[in-house]
Amino acid sequence: TEAKAASETQDIDLMDRLLRVVRERSNPAYHSIMPTRKPRPWSKALLSDATSSVSTSEIPPPPSQESMPPRHMYDTYSQIVLPFASSPELFEQYTNASGGLRTGMLMEHLDSFAGSIAY
User: Which of residues 72 and 107 earns the better pLDDT score?
Assistant: First the structure.
C-alpha cells in the first residue's frame, strides 16, 4: 500500500506540473479559470482569496434570526440509494480497473448531491 500511495503522490505531482506548464503557455485572459494548487494549505488560501477579492461593503448583512422560520433536521433530510447489487451498469461505473471503488467519482457525486441539498 505504501508503493501505491507513493505512486498516487507522483501522479498528483505530475498533474500539478502539467497544469503549471499549461497555465504558463495559455492565454493570460484565461488565467483566472485555470486550476492550480496553491503552495499553502487550501483553508488559508481560501480565506486570503476571499478577503482580498470581496470588500465588506459588498457583502449583504445576514437576515435576522427573528425573520427566519425555525427549521428541523427532517426539513432538509435527503437520501440517495446506489443499487450496486441490482444494477450491473451502476456497479461498473463505480468500479476501477483493479476491482475497487472509484472513490473520486463517489466524492464527485456526493459533492453534487450536497450542492443540490444546500440549494
Answer: 107
